[in-house]
Amino acid sequence: MLSRTLLLAGRLASAATSQQSVSTASRAVEPLNSLLHKCSFATNSTDIFNVHKDTPENNASITFDFTEANYKIVKDIVARYPPNYKASAIIPVLDVAQQQNGGWLSLAAMNRVAKFLDMAPIRVYEVATFYTMFNRTKIGKYHVLICGTTPCRLQGAQGIEEAVTKHLGIHIGQTTPDGIFTLGEMECMGACVNAPMVAIADYTKGVEGFEYTYYEDLTPSDIVSILDTIKKGGKPKPGSQHRSKAEPAGAVVGDKWVPKEGTMTLSGPPRQPYCRDLNA
Ligand SMILES: *[C@@H]1O[C@H](CO)[C@@H](O)[C@H](O)[C@H]1NC(C)=O
Ligand SMILES: *[C@@H]1O[C@H](CO)[C@@H](O)[C@H](O)[C@H]1NC(C)=O
Ligand SMILES: CC(=O)N[C@H]1CO[C@H](CO)[C@@H](O)[C@@H]1O
Ligand code: FES
Known about the structure:
By secondary structure, the protein is α/β, with parallel strands linked by helices. The protein has helices at 2-29, 32-38, 68-78, 90-100, 107-116, 121-130, 150-154, 157-168, 220-231, and strands spanning 142-147, 181-186, 198-202, 211-216, 239-240, 250-253, 256-259. It has a five-stranded mixed beta sheet, with helices on one face. Strands 6-7 form a two-stranded antiparallel ribbon. Strand 3 (198-202) and strand 4 (211-216) form a beta hairpin. Helix 3 runs antiparallel to helix 4 (90-100), helix 5 packs across helix 6 and helix 8 runs parallel beside helix 9 (220-231). It is elongated, with a radius of gyration of 26 Å. It starts with a helix and ends in a 21-residue tail after the last strand. The structure holds 2-acetamido-2-deoxy-beta-D-glucopyranose (NAG) (3 copies) and FE2/S2 (inorganic) cluster (FES). The site of one 2-acetamido-2-deoxy-beta-D-glucopyranose has 7 residues, from helix 2.
């Protein structure tokens, strides 16, 4: 009995080791690059190492200061917090800096925020590197953010991404050569009821004119024409492209909008609740 148990344990152990060694070996041969490819977009860049690299547009010799109007805005923000908790204002203040700076936070912008809030610069970098809505590399005039979370995926976000990357000729994380669009991916932006959706941040008009617009119920051709309209200087219709709000009027199915007809997803009238036959 004892020997049988030992034999079994031995077999199990060797099965486990051989399985493990196969997967360890295949992991070891996989180059770092292909692992990087599998990372989500926010980490698939030099930012994955969270290192600042000097470039002609972002280095310590460049200066940044708030404009007079924006200085008033950040002072109003700080006034909402007790004087000994100025650092609590860091996120809204960085947001103003990013909007003024064309959508990204340069080293100089982060240092200016640190000085403004009496913080060590490293504590500002920590926040700016942690949140993916803060961008530390130069981006295009419009930041196109495709929602990539489950409800949007189920409603065709992949088709939206394919249409956009094909139309603009860039991948997620890249900027068009004319500097107009940068493509990004975001997680759920709370508009799943009108999935799939895309948010576009407009950095062309500074802090006063900053716009962050949702475009919802998109088919691939909807998003392509939205991008074309923006490029021509027009203003596409915001929100749902096919209904007035989120009323049950239909849904995007594949590459087209299908208006509601009868029971939509049900194939027949719903069943009555189960009732036991009391006379049986
Ligand atoms: C820093 O920026 C200045 C001004 O754009 C530029 O002339 C200089 O070459 C940059 N330095 C580095 C190391 O990129
Ligand atoms: C991720 O980075 C690699 C290496 O730079 C690049 O080839 C690839 O296109 C990037 N993937 C995305 C989704 O941007
Ligand atoms: C820090 C950060 O999130 N940087 C991102 C800025 O935006 C571009 C394009 O969307 C990304 O490639 C960067 O990773
Ligand atoms: S999943 Fe796209 S908005 Fe929620």
